[in-house]
Write a structure and sequence with these properties.
Layout lengths: L1 H19 L16 E3 L1 E6 L11 E3 L4 E5 L2 H6 L6 E5 L2 E3 L5 H17 L4 E6 L6 H5 L1 E2 L2 E2 L1 H13 L9 E3 L5 E3 L2 H14 L34 E13 L2 E4 L16 E2 L1 E3 L5 E3 L5 E3 L2 H21 L8 E12 L15 E9 L13 H30 L11 H11 L3 E8 L6 H15 L2 E3 L13 H20 L9 H7 L17 H171 L9 H8 L21 E2 L9 E4 L19 E3 L4 H6 L2 E9 L5 E12 L5 E12 L6 H8 L7 H15 L2 E4 L21
Parallel strand pairs: 2-6, 2-20, 7-19, 7-20, 23-24, 23-25
Antiparallel strand pairs: 1-21, 3-4, 4-5, 8-9, 10-11, 12-13, 12-17, 12-18, 13-14, 15-16, 18-19, 22-26, 25-26, 26-27, 27-28
Bound molecules: adenosine-5'-diphosphate and magnesium ion.
The site of magnesium ion (MG) has 4 residues, from helix 4.
């Protein structure tokens, strides 16, 4: 109780001191969740070539790349094909790399993580003899990653370690906290049980692991939480033939009948982490102690391998370092008695079995089977890595077959949960290993692509920082005070109080010499009064100091409250900001979604518009072609129209001319008729006037009838005796005699008779032409027709050509001869009808003549320069007998 009273004051003093002194480690910013991932860190270590080996197949190109060369023998086997392959890693360590360098790059970050409550897995992979064990364990003077890790851990947490048995494994992969008394009792119990004392003072260092690390090479983590208490527990297991053996289990050793080691099972704890059930976890307090435990396990492993004739290269060794930490209580004196505040992190150091496919030594029977199993577990590891990679790269959710082997099952925590995973690929550059090394490289490449969730920072406990320091300060102050009580105060800065204490007068000798001694008592009284006075002063001083302290404390409390208020206010603001961010994120999400939708819509519209555009184009095309066609048709129509118009006007003109010509012909005919009638009238008049004296008849027709044979009337142009009354201008006869136009229409039939008119020097025409008429003065038309008896009769219609006044040609018909072929049967009748004997009546003869005259009074008149069609009209009047 007294102590507490003093401690309270010291605590406050500490607080004041601390305010201007060291600031506590700032907790790292809290992450919302472990969505961040890191790839498995794959490192490559190339060991030096052995003395017996000659050919080197690996070359370190850079500090991240190595190159493999196929050995000569292999090259020859493959038709001299020169094969070089390069592989890249996070880092490559060449043959000159020291264990320290390797540790610094590969394991140090994992140890730091361990101290900051994060899990880690580190394993070595490679063929037997490639340097896995050398890398992981090392040798005296060349400590590997394992001893160096332990060393760094203890260097870092050394002063903050909890007392032994304060943390106690709960056999369910968890840790319990015990109070100091229980821990002390446990310690005493163990000390009494164990035959061999386990205290560090009595420990004898095994020469096998002596000098693993020189003190100069020591590493230390920064920023270790001083307000926590730490404990380290180690386990060491071996997985052989897919069985788990606890290498730290203490079993009484029976040299006569050695008990086969019992295999352990894997279990899952409440946090879904895998652990070896019932596995020994040894609490170690120093690097040496931890080494000792490790070496104990190592020895046991060696013994078991020898006894059971096993090959150590085929077993996987797993060394687990568990770091337990819990915050100190508010006083900074004890570990907080709260299991929930206990944090356990672990670093798993694994030396895998040789990765070669077959045993280097001869494998027979059960050994071969074992080899198969060992290979099986590495195969499972490869499969797991492959599936993990595939799942992560392709977003698939294939089941990872962790359970297929103990090693992978134990690793499940790391790959599925969170933590840092690192692998050191060990390679021996010798030619014999080349093919196996290729496989190792492939596995390493694949492993680098697997990602593991980054471990999150643990939340820190709610106590104020600097508790341990304050507690220590308090203890120091206490001891100082206790010391002060004994002797004179030796402080360099004496307070008022100490000054007063110093000036406290010592009591004078109070022995009264006699009854009359009146010196002693008054002196005593004086001294006592002086003392009383000083005491009062001291009380005053004390009260003053106490009041001052009180006011200071109050002030501090006020400050503290203000700070707390400020913090809560800031928290509130932070919350608001968080909310705002959340809202903005939501808004962003919404907008993104909207924009995506709009993009989609735009896409669709674009497509639709494209389709329409296409339609439009095709329609336009069609329209164009149709317009063209229309245009063409229109122009065709127009052309046709103009042609038709031409034809119509042509025809019209032709017919107009034709009509005119016909009218002219008719007029001429009528004139001729008129003229003939006039002539007849004149003749008649003459006859009437002359007939009184001589009653004569014209002779010509009879004479002609006499001359001409009855059957034929071929007479070349009998000049009519009766000249035209109104003679037209007659053409002068040329020296060669008369010139005839012999008109024979093409429709005529060639009768093949000898009685053909002989017209020398005649112009033969099929239709009368002005040209021909202008050259001749006689015209004959050969006309055929069917007579009443059915025979063809040919008529020769003759006429004379006159020039008309208009410059054209006119024919005046003067004679008709009829030619007829007769059947002998009808000859008499015909002859009779055609014969005109002298006995015939004059009236009749006259009639015939008149008739001929009448019939021949048809004229053809053509105008000079006329280019019209045939200007002649043939009037074939049937021969009629006058009544
Ligand atoms: P593994 O465990 O892979 O079978 P070891 O670690 O036992 O191989 O190594 C085999 C031999 O090679 C050991 O004698 C070891 O000392 C030696 N060795 C391995 N790596 C190296 C290295 N980096 N430097 C020197 N010697 C090495
Ligand atoms: Mg080994």
């Amino acid at each position: 109780m007294r102590r507490r009273g003093v401690s309270g004051v010291v605590k406050h003093l500490n607080m004041i001191r601390q305010a201007k002194g060291k600031t506590p480690r700032r907790p790292p910013p809290k992450k919302p969740s472990n969505t961040q991932k890191d790839p498995v860190g794959v490192y490559c270590r190339v060991r030096p070539l052995g003395a017996e080996d000659e050919e080197c197949c690996i070359e370190v190109i850079s500090n991240t790349t190595i190159q493999l060369h196929a050995p000569d023998g292999l090259k020859a086997n493959r038709n001299g094909e020169f094969k070089e392959t390069q592989y890249s890693f996070k880092k490559v360590f060449g043959i000159k790399t020291t264990q320290r360098e390797l540790f610094e790059d590969v394991a140090k970050p994992l140890v730091e993580d361990l101290i900051y409550c994060k899990n880690g897995l580190l394993f070595t992979y490679g063929v037997t003899g490639s340097g896995k064990t050398h890398t992981m364990t090392g040798s005296p003077g060349q400590g590997g990653l394992l001893p160096r890790s332990l060393d760094m851990i203890f260097n870092s947490i050394g002063p903050y370690q909890a007392k032994r048995y304060v943390f106690k494994p709960d056999d369910k992969n968890g840790m319990e906290v015990q109070n100091q008394v229980d821990a002390l009792l446990d310690r005493q119990k163990r000390d009494s049980q164990t035959t061999v004392p386990k205290t560090p003072t009595t420990r004898r260092i095994d020469p096998e692991f002596a000098d693993m690390i020189s003190p100069a090479e020591a590493f230390k983590a920064d920023g270790v939480d001083e307000d926590s208490s730490y404990s380290v527990f180690v386990s060491y297991i071996e997985i052989y033939n897919n069985y788990i053996y606890d290498l730290l289990e203490e079993t009484p050793f029976d040299p006569i009948k050695p008990k086969p080691p019992q295999s352990k099972l894997l279990r899952e704890d409440q946090n879904h982490n895998m652990y070896v059930a019932g596995c020994t976890e040894v609490e170690v307090k120093s690097t040496e102690e931890a080494f000792e435990v490790f070496w104990r396990g190592q020895k046991k492993r060696r013994i078991a391998n020898t006894q059971l004739n096993r090959e150590s290269s085929r077993s996987h060794s797993v060394f687990i370092i568990k770091l337990t930490q819990a915050p100190l209580d508010a006083d900074g004196d004890n570990v907080l008695q709260d299991k929930n505040q206990v944090n356990v992190s672990q670093l798993c150091l694994v030396d895998l079995a040789g990765s070669e496919r077959t045993s280097r030594t001869r494998a027979e029977g059960s050994r071969l089977r074992e080899a198969g199993n060992i290979n099986q577990s590495l195969m499972t590891l490869r499969t797991c890595i492959e599936v993990l990679r595939e799942n992560q790269m392709c977003g698939t959710n294939k089941m990872v077959p962790y359970r297929d082997s103990k090693v992978t099952h134990l690793f499940k925590n790391y790959f599925d949960g969170e933590g840092k995973v690192r692998m050191v690929v060990c390679v021996n550059p010798k030619a014999d290993d080349y093919e196996e090394t290729l496989l190792v490289m492939r596995f390493a490449e694949m492993t680098q692509e697997v990602e593991v969730a980054r471990p999150v920072d643990r939340p820190i406990c709610g106590f104020a920082a600097g508790r341990r320091q304050r507690n220590q300060a308090f203890k120091e102050e206490l001891t100082r005070r206790l010391e002060d009580r004994g002797g004179p105060v030796t402080g360099e800065s004496p307070t008022v109080l100490s000054q007063l204490l110093q000036s406290f007068p010592s009591l004078p000798a109070s022995e009264i010499a006699g009854p009359n001694d009146d010196v002693t008592l008054p002196r005593l009284i004086e001294a006592l009064e002086k003392r009383h006075k000083i005491r009062q002063m001291m009380v005053e001083e004390y009260n003053k100091t106490a009041n001052m302290l009180k006011s200071m404390l109050q002030e501090q409390d006020g400050n503290f409250v203000a700070k707390e208020n400020f913090i809560s206010e800031q928290r509130g603001r932070l919350g608001e900001k968080d909310k705002m961010i959340q809202n903005q994120n939501n808004e962003i999400d919404r907008l993104e979604k909207k924009s995506k939708m709009l993009e989609y819509k735009i896409d669709i519209l674009q497509k639709t518009s494209n389709i329409h555009e296409e339609d439009k184009r095709s329609l336009q095309h069609e329209l164009d072609s149709r317009e063209q066609r229309l245009q063409r048709e229109l122009s065709d129509k127009r052309r046709m129209e103009s042609r038709m118009q031409g034809i119509v006007s042509d025809t019209k003109l032709k017919w107009e001319k034709e009509c005119e010509r016909r009218v002219n012909a008719k007029q001429l005919e009528m004139q001729n008729k008129l003229w003939v009638k006039d002539e007849k009238l004149k003749q008649l008049k003459a006859i009437v006037t002359e007939g009184k004296s001589e009653n004569r008849q014209p002779q010509r027709p009879s004479r002609e009838k006499d001359k001409v044979p009855p059957k034929r009337s071929v007479s070349p142009s009998p000049v009519p005796t009766v000249p035209p009354v109104r003679p037209l201008h007659r053409r002068s006869h040329s020296a060669g005699g008369e010139r005839w136009v012999d008109h024979k229409p093409t429709t005529n039939v060639d009768l093949d008779t000898v009685m053909q008119p002989n017209l020398p020097n005649a112009i033969k025409v099929t239709a009368p032409s002005e040209k021909a008429l202008s050259k001749c003065d006689k015209y004959v038309l050969t006309h055929q027709e069917v007579a009443s008896d059915g025979e063809i009769q040919t008529k020769l219609i003759k006429g004379e050509v006159f020039k008309t006044r208009g410059g054209g040609q006119s024919v005046q018909f003067t004679d008709i001869e009829t030619l007829k072929q007769e059947n002998p049967a009808s000859a008499s009748r015909k002859r009779r009808s055609s014969e005109s004997g002298p006995s015939h009546e004059g009236e009749r003869k006259d009639g015939d003549w008149t008739d001929v005259e009448t019939r021949c009074s048809v004229a053809v008149e053509m105008r000079a320069g006329s280019n019209l069609g045939p200007g002649y009209q043939h009037h074939g009047y049937p021969k009629r007998r006058k009544p």
